[in-house]
Every structure is written in C-alpha cells, then in structure tokens.
Structure of Granule-bound starch synthase:
Amino acid sequence: GGLGDVLGGLPPAMAANGHRVMTVSPRYDQYKDAWDTSVLVELEVGGRVETVRFFHCYKRGVDRVFVDHPLFLEKVWGLTESKIYGPRTGVDYMDNQFRFSLLCQAALEAPRVLNLNSNKYFSGPYGDDVVFIANDWHAALLPCYLKTIYKPKGIYKNAKVVFCIHNIAYQGRFPNSDFSLLDLPDNLKGSFDFIDGHDKPVKGRKINWMKAGILESDRVVTVSPYYAQELISGEDKGVELDNTIRKTGITGIVNGMDVQEWNPATDKYLDIKYDNTTVLDAKPLLKEALQAEAGLPVDRNIPVFGFIGRLEE
C-alpha cells in the first residue's frame, strides 16, 4: 500500500540529492533481480540464535537489501495466500514479533557488514555514521536495539533514528508477557507499557511497539502536515497514542510523488501518451476510452472523478 509506494519513490529521490541510501526489507519472495550477497549474520532473537542472509540489488541509486529467513518466505509460499501479517484481518500470526524483531536487528547489521560497491560515488560498507528511518510498528524495535545493544559498545555513537508513522491504526499491540521475547532490558519496559479498553489481543495491560518506537527515536515524522495535526487532535484520531506523540512532537512531511513512475509521457498503461503540450488533446480521448471501458455514457464533456483510497472497516 502507501508504505510500499513511499519506499519505492522516496529513496531514489534522496539518492538524487546526493545521499547514500539503503532500504532494508524482508525477502518475501524470490525477487528476480536481487542476488545473494552470501553474507550471513547470526542474531539472537527470542532466546535463540538465528541466521539471516542478505540479498541485494541496486536500482536508481539505491541499495535494495532483503533479509532472507525461512519465516519470511514461508508466509508467501505456504498456504497463507500471500497474507503477510495474519491469516485474516485483525489476527496476528504467532511469529509476528519474532519476524519483525529479526528484521530490526538485521537492519542494524546491514550498514556495517555489507560491502556494497554498486555506486560510483560510494564504496564499501556504510559504516555506523548513519540515519535510520524506521517505518511503522514493524521497525519500532530498531531504536530500542540501537540504544541498548549497540551504543553501549560504542557502535553507532552518532547514528540517529527517525520514526515515520504511515498508519497509526496498526501499532503492534501484544500481551504484556511477550516483552521477555524481545531481548530488551527491563528499563525499556515503560516505553512499551500500554493500557487500553480493548480485549484484543488480550484484556488489560499490553506492550505497544509503536509507542516504544515513538519514545525511543530521535525524531517522529508522518506523511503530511495534516495527518500530523490529526494524530495529536485526540484519542480517536491518534488511536490512543495522541498523548505519547504530543510528548515527543511530530513533523508532517507531505508524501511526494515519483515523477519518473507517474509520467504520462512514458506510462505503459496509457494508450495515448501525453506531456504538457499535448495534454488537452490526449485527455479527452483517454476519458472517452475509460468511459467506454467502464460502461458509462461516452461524452468528453462529462466530468469523471477518480478516488484512490482504502476501504477499511
């Protein structure tokens, strides 16, 4: 959805501004252009040691890194019909916390261990002088691990974390007892501690990944100035995290548009391509074709409105 759109378009825009940019995401599929780097790291997750390996491709100035582990692949290959978070809406897979804490730890290793030389301006590992952008609850443990595992060892001393909220409704709320699975010290417990009036996933006291991500990061941002206002406007729009966000502050930065992908002069889905000089000739024809396809009256003088958004309960 929107998160995929942002991670598709924003990194190339940052690279075009001269930054060295890496994205780290789970390897949910055999992505045909992402190759095995043969770099393996061992991570301690949920009291056991897990091995992940990194796959990589370089596109439009961005190092795209994918974390390979059987639990990521099996969600899509197995009998789950490509559902990534749960068997059906509102139900979590049992291993969600395990998988996403694995992702957060792997993302902390990637800049240090991957020797990437695809870019003529940059070579070698990124090192530890970096800024992490942690998107939504799945990445919320990254600032927690950074603070408790790496910084005490003098690693990532100057690294900063920006936590970006795309959708406040999904917060990673889990039973309170699950805190012990996260390999974090007890002094971080307060950042996760959360009480709400809901019985899901359990009644009463819970842990809340997004709350911890907000509190443990250096900056909190979201996808538009208006959404930033909405999130602190009250319990309803802030989905019970409004007080937490008021405490840290939040900056709304409008989601941009990838003008290379959304370019009507080269768009493979348009039968008639156009630019700013031919737009007035082409659009009426495209509108008529759309009206015909949708079974509407074909008339170039009738306005047609398009709505793109989520239908969600």
Observations:
- The chain has a mean pLDDT of 92.
- Residues 2-252 form a domain with the Rossmann fold fold (CATH 3.40.50.2000).
- Residues 96-113 form the longest helix (18 residues).
